[in-house]
Design a protein that fits this description.
The complex is a heterodimer of chains A (175) and B (155). By secondary structure, chain A is an alpha/beta fold. Chain A contains 5 helices and 7 strands; from the N terminus they run αβββαβαβαββα. Classes of the chains: A alpha/beta (175), B mainly alpha (155).
Chain lengths: 175, 155
Amino acid sequence: MNRFLLPLSIFIVVVVFLGIGLKLNPREIPSPLVGKAAPDFSQPQLFEPTKIFSPADMKGKVWLLNFWASWCSGCKTEHPVLMDLAKSGEVPIYGMDYKDQRDEAMTWLSRWGNPYPIVGVDEAGRVGINYGVYGVPETYVIDKQGVIRYKQIGPLDPDTVEKKIIPLVKQLETQ
Amino acid sequence: MNMNWILLVALFLSGPVWAGEAKPLADDPASEARLKHLAVELRCLVCQNQTLADSNAPLAEDLRREVREMIAKNMSDQEIIEFLTARYGDFVLYRPPLKATTTLLWVGPFVLVGIGATALVITLRRRAGKVVDVPVTEDEHRRVEQLLSEGGKRS
């Protein structure tokens, strides 16, 4: 019995590590920006290009910044979740139209609905780079002081909104 | 010298085509060489097993553009790498730095080799202890010789 104990325990340890490895998503790279000030920008707005959208206008509010594009299929998946969250009034979602065509973006929003009070336009993808975006959709939770508190890589789903986003927003509101 | 002339002519001929575009650095081989040197050390975040130099992903193109602009601004390699790691983390580096979070990555293989070597030494020592000299008796010698000679006849 004893001579099987060591190989068996090594086997179990290896299986546990491989199991954890299987569960990890290599696409989810932890962002070094969580806990840091949200990078500043001033981008033209999608619907009113003469107006500027800047995070400085959001000081004192807890808000979400959602990078999306009309060409992005994950954004279509995520879209109903954003619509529901916007309707619930828990937290405002601001959009950043990432490397997109203006007219296509506007068509997309009028077709599927617009959850954003304001959409900024990041045509060259520079704001995206400053936020460490490497694929859309990505969503940032930003607190009253303008600090990034959470980054969602890939589409938001109802479960994440329910269990992570809303509790975090509520907690940040009290600060 | 000759090369300079060719470049100068190329520059003159292609000048109007570049109007309004971001200035490519092909006219400055030193900067382009720096870009290449940096880009092979950086990972493309979209196609994770490609370097920034190899990838054709739109993000890689954008990042190459950013790096080009930083080179044009005379920023050091160190500053450029800091710019990227501040946004994307150490994951953009093909050679991650030795830090508390990456200790396992750097030390792990040596630890595994150490464990393997120790296990090997222990096993070999144990096995060496098990081998006992057994004297062969006169009788056994004779029997062996008999068997060998019988085998010889058969074949």
